[in-house]
Amino acid sequence: MTDDAGPPAASLSGSLARTSSSGPTAAAPRSTDAQAIQAASAPGSATVTTAVTTKRPRVKPRIVLDGTPDEILARNNRAASPAFVDKLLARAGTHWNKFYTNHANATPFFKDRHWTDREWPQLAQLAEVSEAQSADDNAAEGVQAERRRLAKGKGKAVLEVGCGTGAFIYPLLERYPQARYVAFDFAKKAVELTKNHPLHDPSKCHIFQHDLTLPLSALSEKLAAAPSEFGEPVREGGFDVVSCIFVLSALSPKQHMEALQTLISLLAPGGWLLFRDYAWHDAAQLRFHSLPSASYATEPSLLSPRTSSDVSEAPSAAKETADPPSVDPDLPFYRRGDNTLTYFFSSDEIARHVSDATAALNNSKGEGEVRVELEGAVEIVEREMENRKEGWGCTRRFVHGSWRRTR
Ligand SMILES: C[S@@+](CC[C@H](N)C(=O)[O-])C[C@H]1O[C@@H](n2cnc3c(N)ncnc32)[C@H](O)[C@@H]1O
């Protein structure tokens, strides 16, 4: 797969033969690795029966994706124990850091994304400087008006959250050098790789380590601490573009709405929130229910039980803890073989989260503060992927959305 086809080759790149796992990466799939999901049928399609056998001589796991996506998802639904899920969530940063450390030298493992302005035509606005003040701005008072005055005449500001290696910002920086780019990731190694990118320019880029699930105040402090070369920091409410690409799926489902609230509060009036992530029935999700490990692993890939009786630990053990389990039942939340986490969304779910997040943000505002309004759309996009040489193909499915802050 090339990046132009869409997202990181998430589950495509883990080596089934070696680990029966998938990797969360922006890389093209490796030969035998990619076979793992080659047999995934198109969602909603008729029954497909395909067997995949690795070419490695000694280990020959066999995956059979047999049936419709719904039938496949109905299999192997035993979930990991709540205690194990809690441990995974607590160590999420460590696992991502390991992921980047392990793949840092395996170039060209990480590839820049050159497809983004094809998928989001709104990015063409990065060619402009920030709009001149409107009559409204002149009339506005307080901190927000001051920020907009400071931004006047400067390049547009982009924020990439969970930036990985900076695959989103650098192709944009090349095309729109007049814009300014802020990016963060909570994996230290990812931040290091982003800063070491050949196109990194400290006068245009402010890159730092940060956990998106922390309160907004923690992020505000880091935004304000931009290095002097970068000039005037871009702050909350000042971004013309905020992108969240294959990042929300890495968070616990309980954090999805609040993370979106943070992203919305960063948008400038007129700014765009751009979203892309894995969708329900994506080939990578089907694969989680078809791997040999799905049925025999002590702690399976599925983290969220479909019914409480499917939990591998006795339900009474979960009841003994004071806190409810970290993950609600019936959610498509999984761990990859390297213990990074991934979720598969529906478009309705994302639309609802964005709407709830906007409402929550407005409820948190004091009297007289400007209410935020968003307009946008979200859809499912499908991308057929194939590797003719190796004779495999699959359907990747993504939730793709964009919302404009209209007020
Ligand atoms: C699947 S990768 C996508 C990377 C990049 N956005 C891309 O599309 O290539 C998910 C990224 O989210 C980062 N991440 C996961 N949880 C995060 C959090 N709570 N705060 C910030 N970054 C996070 C991971 O370190 C990883 O770099």
TrEMBL record:
Task: Identify the stretch(es) annotated as Disordered.
Answer: 1-34, 299-332
Do you know which Gene3D superfamilies this protein is assigned to?
Answer: Vaccinia Virus protein VP39
What the record says about family reads: Belongs to the methyltransferase superfamily. METL family.
Please give the PANTHER family that the UniProt record associates with this protein: METHYLTRANSFERASE-RELATED, TRNA N(3)-METHYLCYTIDINE METHYLTRANSFERASE METTL6
What InterPro entries has UniProt attached to this entry? METTL2/6/8-like, SAM-dependent_MTases_sf
What organism is this sequence from?
Answer: Rhodotorula taiwanensis
Report any Pfam family annotated for this entry.
Answer: Methyltransf_23
Annotated coiled-coil segments of the chain: none
Protein name as catalogued: Methyltransferase-like protein
Keyword set, alphabetical order: Methyltransferase, Transferase
Q: What is the lineage of its organism?
A: Eukaryota, Fungi, Dikarya, Basidiomycota, Pucciniomycotina
Taxonomic superkingdom: Eukaryota
What does the record list as GO biological process? methylation
GO MF annotation list: RNA methyltransferase activity; S-adenosylmethionine-dependent methyltransferase activity
Q: Does the keyword Transferase apply?
A: yes
Q: Where is the composition biased (Low complexity)?
A: 9-23
As given in the record, the signal peptide range reads: none
